[in-house]
Design a protein that fits this description.
Blueprint (H helix, E strand, L loop, with lengths): L1 H7 L3 E7 L7 E10 L2 E9 L4 E8 L5 E8 L11 E6 L19 E8 L10 E7 L10 E2 L19 E9 L9 E8 L14 E7 L5 E4 L11 E10 L2 E11 L2 E12 L6 E2 L6 E2 L8 E10 L2 E9 L5 E7 L11
């Protein structure tokens, strides 16, 4: 575990790399991938109505230009017309690898948080699946399945996820370690909290599996990562020398009630996880992340580790920042 920490740590905060155009918009949840000679980042933006999914481009992982939208609001009666918070799927999981997104059935794929209620994570939230056969680096509306693939009203819903379902990560395991080719990790909250008082911020990470990216089956009754009260969420996986590493964030734990932070856990089998007990990978330390520093996306490129995260200041401005394993200077971007 110590070796993994030494490999992934990023003590140098470069600063903000993507910020909203106006203070009433909030940017969150970076996902970073490579295509051709460029890097791309999908992220979600909240503007008061709900979440939309956007994409930005970079040559060096530090200077980013927003290109446009991948999933926007739809003025329809669709189940997800006001919430579409997307996350890349089927990325090459090799640490220090090419970070490309793989196709399945000649399409690129995303999982997303969907919902019909307006507002910040309002109403029932479920997990949807979207895909495109077009150039994923060009802004265009992705095709979405007509109904969620996992929701809190499913017959087989588990005790820890019967209220809202949140961020999901889908990896491809061609070895079918768990019997299926596609594995999803997602966080959710539920009414049942193990004989503790009911509280909104019980959020845990659990699993589902699929053979076709469309039909998903829940895996095991219990979550695979949790810390009692507070949030354990937003898992992103990479494989380092035969060890699976799950980057995730914690918030409002019993011993750290007002804090958010990024951490990691390790596994050999994708199901049983050993939690890192040492220093946080990311925590609040700068004016731009003074309120919250959380939600990981980590890549290693040409010997340098880049840890992207969501930064929130005391005024509730919200954007994407990055920390690195070597000193890359300081960003000129501010809220």
């Amino acid at each position: 575990m110590q070796k993994v920490y030494e490999e992934v740590k990023t003590p140098f905060k470069y600063g903000l790399v993507v910020t909203p155009e106006t203070s009433n918009k909030k940017i969150d949840c970076p996902s970073v991938f490579r295509k051709g000679n460029s890097w791309y980042m999908t992220y979600i933006q909240f503007d008061g109505r709900g979440y939309e999914t956007w994409i930005a481009k970079s040559k060096d992982l530090l200077q980013w230009t927003t290109l446009g939208k991948l999933m926007g609001f739809s003025d329809t009666t669709d189940w997800d017309n006001n919430q579409k918070a997307g996350y890349i799927s089927l990325q090459n999981t090799k640490w220090g690898g090419n970070y490309k997104l793989e196709k399945y059935q000649r399409k690129y794929w995303m999982s997303y948080i969907g919902g019909k209620d307006r507002g910040y994570e309002s109403g029932p939230l479920a997990i949807g699946i979207a895909n495109t056969a077009n150039d994923l680096t060009k802004p265009h509306e992705w095709n979405r399945l007509s109904k969620p693939v996992l929701s809190s009203t499913d017959a087989d819903v588990r005790w820890w996820e019967n209220r809202k379902l949140y961020k999901s990560t889908v990896i491809r395991d061609k070895n079918k370690t768990l019997g299926s080719e596609f594995i999803m990790y997602y966080n959710a909250n539920g009414d049942s909290s193990g004989n503790k008082p009911k509280w909104r911020w019980f959020e845990r990470i659990g699993m589902a599996v699929s053979d076709d990216m469309v039909n998903w089956k829940r895996y095991h009754a219990d979550p695979v990562m949790e810390h009692g009260v507070g949030i354990t969420g937003d898992a992103v996986l990479q494989k380092i020398n035969g060890v699976w590493v799950m980057f995730y964030f914690g918030a409002f734990w019993e011993t750290r009630k007002n804090e958010t932070f990024n951490r990691f856990a390790c596994s050999y089998d994708l199901v049983n996880w050993t939690d890192w007990k040492g220093e946080d990978l990311i925590k609040s330390s700068e004016p731009y992340d003074a309120k919250y520093a959380h939600k990981s996306f980590v890549v290693k490129w040409k010997g340098v580790v880049y840890h992207f995260y969501c930064a929130v200041d005391k005024n509730d401005n919200r954007g994407i920042a990055v920390a690195t394993s070597v000193d890359k200077g300081k960003s000129n971007l501010n809220f």
